[in-house]
């Protein structure tokens, strides 16, 4: 089977589609390639395996990897034909932080050729290469069946990986045009779409009105600093706030740790918020069903809805939590925990993606995400998947990397800000200092400097 015949077969099986499709990144695409079904058509499967074998047989490698799920059965057949060992990264195990698990036999220093079905940006390829490299496997070459944009090759080249593709989008369009299987207007639409950068093309879309309010205050106060004021006595609380309040854009509270909480606390806090011009984020981490969080938010001792500008929420219980909090309420919304900073936390890529899906559906409820990562690149990758213009708040930040003895992991201010953080959340880094005011100023200046520099680029 030659490449044109393969394309025609793909079209026939429904693997090439034209219409309006929301990609993982949130971008709306006028075309969609779905090669998952290829395995059910022996002739097409044989065809693509034959083409791949031809493409890679003279390359230098010891192992073949397939990226699950789509490329794995295809890579298996290629490996078998070339008599090479196959490996892959188990997808379910690939939770953020813990890393994926490589299945199959290999030796440190082995060179691995990685096969995938498609490439749009290089992000997921780089992620899997990093995982192999952590295990001592060398990765240099990627082979994809369809290259649907120029971005992928650029992204990989920046990291010194080579991309080989069987067929390009242009070749697909030419072949379909030759056989009258696509209209000229569709071709123009697709070319117009692909000539725009894929990355960030939806990032300017305002999806949550409150993000602008926070951004404006960040600029007004020239501060990306959120103080996590985790102390248990009113006196300590207000003493620190006195010294630090003018340095911060937002104050993060855990209202339920204040031992001597009384009815005077909230009015006093609100006075500070007004005078020192900061938002209040109550880090309640709502996580229950809608009906329960509705009570937790509006009732009880703290009546959080009355005074907190923002609250944090987990979406483990689904979108009902957000409805329970914000239905019929104007001007309030949440920061959702899409990743966590603590070691061994159970959030994985799939969960994070589901959080973004909910945000795409209910943008009015989500001003931003809380997230963390291995380093700046990892955080950037996380942020690049936000569905709209949501803000990124990064906790677990100190001047030096490290951890506490209860699993908290710290990145530096630079890691977080280079990762694209809009704000850093700092607790003990400031609270435990002998001079919280000058320490807060240090964090603030550091973050603001990097933020300004990165916004110019
Ligand atoms: O993943 C997270 C999310 C949050 S909101 N990791 C976190 O540490 N936090 C909160 O940030 C945590 O509840 C605490 O209030 C603050 C970090 O405090 P620090 O003293 O470790 O800086």
Q: How would you sum up this structure, described in words?
A:
There is one protein chain. The chain has helices at residues 3-13, 42-56, 71-82, 123-134, 151-158, 169-178, 184-195, 209-221, 234-244, 265-276, 290-298, 320-326, 349-361, 376-383, 413-418, 428-431, 436-456, and strands at residues 16-22, 28-33, 63-66, 86-95, 99-103, 111-119, 138-147, 162-168, 225-228, 250-253, 279-286, 310-313, 333-337, 366-370, 391-394, 397-398, 402-403, 409-412, 423-426. The chain is elongated, with a radius of gyration of 25 Å. Helix 2 packs across helix 3. 40% of the residues lie in helices and 23% in strands. An 8-stranded parallel β-barrel has the order 9-10-11-12-13-14-15-19, surrounded by 4 helices. It starts with a helix and ends with a helix. It is α/β, with parallel strands linked by helices. It contains 17 helices and 19 strands. The chain folds into 2 domains: 3-200, Rossmann fold, CATH 3.40.50.2020; 209-456, Alpha-Beta Barrel (TIM Barrel), CATH 3.20.20. Bound molecules: 6-sulfanyluridine-5'-phosphate.
């Amino acid at each position: 089977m030659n490449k044109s015949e393969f394309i025609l077969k793909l079209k026939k099986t429904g693997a090439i589609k034209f219409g309006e499709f929301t990609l993982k990144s949130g971008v709306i695409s006028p075309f969609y390639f779905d090669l998952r079904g290829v395995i059910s058509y022996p002739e097409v499967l044989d065809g693509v395996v034959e083409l791949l074998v031809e493409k890679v047989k003279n390359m230098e490698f010891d192992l073949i990897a397939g990226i699950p799920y789509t490329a794995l059965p295809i890579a298996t057949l290629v490996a078998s034909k070339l008599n090479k060992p196959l490996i892959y990264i188990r997808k379910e195990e690939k939770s953020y932080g813990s890393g994926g698990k490589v299945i199959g036999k290999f030796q440190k220093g082995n060179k691995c050729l990685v096969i995938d079905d498609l490439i749009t940006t290089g992000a997921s390829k780089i992620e899997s290469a990093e995982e192999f490299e952590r295990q001592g496997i060398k990765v240099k070459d990627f082979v994809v069946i369809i290259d649907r944009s120029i971005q992928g090759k650029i992204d990989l080249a920046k990291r010194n990986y080579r991309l080989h593709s069987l067929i390009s989008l242009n070749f697909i369009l030419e072949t379909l045009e030759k056989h009258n299987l696509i209209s000229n207007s569709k071709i123009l639409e697709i070319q117009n779409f692909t000539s725009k950068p894929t990355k960030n093309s939806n990032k300017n879309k305002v999806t949550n009105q409150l993000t602008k309010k926070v951004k404006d205050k960040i600029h007004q106060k020239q501060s990306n600093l959120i103080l996590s004021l985790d102390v248990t006595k009113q006196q300590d609380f207000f003493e620190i706030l006195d010294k630090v309040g003018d340095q911060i854009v937002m104050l993060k509270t855990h209202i339920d740790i204040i031992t001597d909480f009384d009815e005077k606390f909230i009015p006093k806090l609100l006075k500070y918020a007004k005078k020192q011009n900061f938002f209040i984020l109550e880090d309640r981490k709502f996580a229950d069903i809608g009906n329960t969080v509705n009570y937790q938010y509006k009732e009880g001792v703290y009546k959080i809805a009355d005074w907190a500008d923002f609250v944090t929420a987990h979406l483990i219980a689904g979108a009902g939590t957000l409805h329970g909090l914000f239905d019929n309420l104007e001007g309030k919304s949440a920061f959702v925990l899409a990743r966590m900073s603590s070691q061994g936390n159970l959030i994985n890529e799939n969960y994070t993606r589901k959080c973004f899906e909910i945000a795409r559906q209910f943008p009015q409820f989500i001003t931003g995400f809380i997230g963390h990562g291995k380093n700046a690149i990892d955080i950037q990758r996380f942020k690049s998947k936000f569905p709209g213009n949501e803000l990124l708040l990064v906790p677990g930040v100190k001047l030096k990397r490290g951890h506490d003895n209860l699993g908290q992991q710290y990145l530096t201010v630079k890691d977080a800000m280079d990762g694209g953080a809009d704000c850093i959340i700092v607790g003990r880094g400031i609270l435990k200092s002998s001079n919280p005011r000058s320490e807060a100023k240090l964090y603030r200046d550091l973050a603001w400097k990097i933020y300004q520099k990165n916004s110019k680029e």
